[in-house]
Every structure is written in structure tokens, then in C-alpha cells.
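Field: COMPLEX_INPUT
Field: COMPONENT_COUNT = two
Field: RESIDUE_TOTAL = 448
Field: MODE = joint
Values follow.
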Amino acid sequence: MNTHPSRQVIDDELHACVDGRLSATARADLQQRLAQDPQARATLQDWMTQRDALRQLHTQLLDEPIPAALQASVRQTQLVRTSRQRWARWGGMAAGVVMAFSLGWFSNAQIGNSSGSRLAQQQPAHDFVRQAALAHAVYSPEVRHPVEVDAAQEEHLIQWLSKRLNRPLTLPRLHDAGFQLVGGRLLPGDTGARAQFMYQNAQGDRVTLYVGSSPVDAQVPGTDLEFRYSAQGSISSFYWIDRGFAYALSGHQTRQQLLQLARHVHQQL
Amino acid sequence: MTQHALAEQIPALRRYARALIGNTWAADDLVQDTLERACTKWRLWLTGSDLRAWLFTLMHNLYITQVRYQVRLGELGQPLSLDDLDVPDVQSAPVDAAIDLQRCLLQLPEDQRAVLLLVTLEDLSYEEVAHITGVPVGTVMSRLSRARHRLRDLMNAKAEKRTATERPRRPVENLRRLK
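Field: COMPLEX_OUTPUT
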């Protein structure tokens, strides 16, 4: 083992010296002692050279623009944080005040019966659909970069998002309803990666399908799949959970139009 | 905290991940995973505390989980092949040196590599590195020593191979390797 009991002590001083953490006097003192220790002196020199070389490594990444996927994650992360803070700050106040902060406010307009077990499950589902609506609000108005991967690279899009969501995804087609695929993007969510697919009709109206692993542990056994409605500001969403995955279809359409589209999507999954 | 503040951390996170893993795509995946984790854990981050240290802590934990998973899959312990590394198109002396350095780095054990890179690339204090990696400062110091000694030996061996000049090895280097 170690024949020099003081080796780690000397090493510690050498590290501090290499990493610029010694005061001028401590440094001078060390150098004086190293005069009698050529081996330690050589180590110091080598480590300094090594540190310089390491600091040159991949420096190009510090100046390179941030890839689009990471930029999107930064935006999404920030949005989630901001909306959470608003929610926490204003949550207890009158709805009128809260409505002023339209983003981040989730107005509960669910339909359907609420058994006890469902109530327990509602919060994660709320979070999911709220994030879907936020993602719709952020990306659907984008003119130049609405998606990361466009419809022309459909095969790549589906492969990439399937890999990131760790599950083979299917791209629903909404041609019959007049909507063409624009493309998709990857987003972070509470329960892991989420995918957003965007569709657009001839009038330029957009709907987004938001997909991710179910925020609820399991579907309540014996219950049928149900579409649930929620509205956040002017954005409406229908969401449902199917075989461990959650889906939310969001847009500015009327409730009836959106429900039809949601059924259309669900049939193809 | 602004979006700007978060975005500012990305280049350093990418660079650290790249040096830690050696592969561009895998490194960016780790950064992406870190942001996803940050997204779900915002409530645990105290406003006003060091955002950079927090993000590096998240990334470190994800990385260690990933390494353990790979160990289970038996992916580690295999010699690295050339294909695993991203080799820049232009071959020049500084680029060669950078590739050598990256290769040698990847031969260090993960915990030593992480400590060395956090200290060197990020200028984090030993205490901060201890906090990020979840070990006592003494452990950080001994990992740093091992990493620096070992990296020096690896780089020397590379240099000897490259120049093919016979340089007698100092016996003390062999002693240190056993540490």
C-alpha cells in the first residue's frame, strides 16, 4: 500500500496549488518545500499541464449555439416552473384574480362521474393536461419553428420519438378531418419525456396531440376508456388514458369538433 | 431566475457531459434528461441557491444511474472501440492530442473521471464537488489524486507509443498505480 503516510497530505496541497486555491504565501511555502522533493515537483508540473489540456477539451461546445431540442427543453422547464409558482402564489385567491394569469391557471371543467379512486387520481392527470395545453400555447403560434422535425421526415420523427418515449408510437392521420401533419417535437414532462405532434388544416388552425407515459399508475380496472374535457383559457383539451399512455388533444376548436378529432385519433392508436 | 439563467448553464453542461461520456449524442441525451429531471424537481430547488450546482447534481445522479444500468447490461468493462468516439474530420496535432486525452479520460473509473472534470472544467470547489457527488471531501480528494496520477500514466504511455522513443519509466509511477 502507501509507503508515504504523508502522500495524500502532499497531494492535497498539490491539488490546491494546481487548482489555484492556495494563497500567495501558502504557495511560496509549498514551492520552498518542493525544492527538496523533485518527485513532487514533477507531479505538480505534470498536473498543471494536464489541467491546461483538459480545459482545452471540447471548448467549441461553449460557443456553439444550443441545439433546438435542448432550447425547447429549457423553455418548457421554465414554463412549468413559472406556472407552478403562479399556481402556488395565487391558488388560494378568487378566480377572477387568478384568471388574469391565464397561462398556468388550470380551470377545471371536467365532465364524467368522479368516484373516490378517480378523485385521488385527478391531480396527476390535471398536471398532464395542463402541460399539454401549455405546450400547445407555446408552440402552435410559432411560424418559423413550430416543430423540431417536420412531416417530410415522418419516418425519422416517429423513430426518434418512439426511442425517447421508450415505446413504439403510431402517428394518427387526420386527413379525413382536413388536418395535415406539420411535424413533432420532444418535450419534458412530470413523468418523463413527452411527444407533441402538430396538425394544421387549410385555414391554418392547429391542433396538437400530446403523448406521454400515464401520470396515473394504472387504469382503474373494469372502467372503460373515457374522454375527459378540460379548458385552460381559450385552449380546450380532450384527454384520455389508454394502455399505460396518456394522450391530450388540444386546440382552439369547439368542444364538439375537438371531441370528434380525439375519437378519430384514438381509433388509430 | 429567468429562462436566460437556465439557458446560460447549457453550454457548460454539454461540455462536461461530452468529456464525461465521449460521445456527442449520448452527451446531449444526458443534458436533455437533466432538463427533464429539473422540470419535475423544480419544487426541490431553493430559489437563490446555486442553480449550476443543482443542475450538475441532477446530471451526476442521472449519469451514475445510467452507468449502473449499463453495468447490469454488461456494456462496461469492454474495451472502447474507435467507433464509440467522435473523431473530428480534420486530423491535426492538437486534434490528435485532444482525442488521446479523451480516450485516456474514458479509461478512468467513472467516479474519478467525474470528480476530475468537475474540479478542472467547472472550477468547482472541493466542497461543492463533494456535495454534487454525494461523498465526503476526503473521498473527493483521494479520487482526484487517483484520477490525476492515473491520467498522467495513461497519457505518458500514449506519448511513448506515439513517438516510439524509449523513455525509462520511473519506478515510482508503478508504485502509484497500485494506490
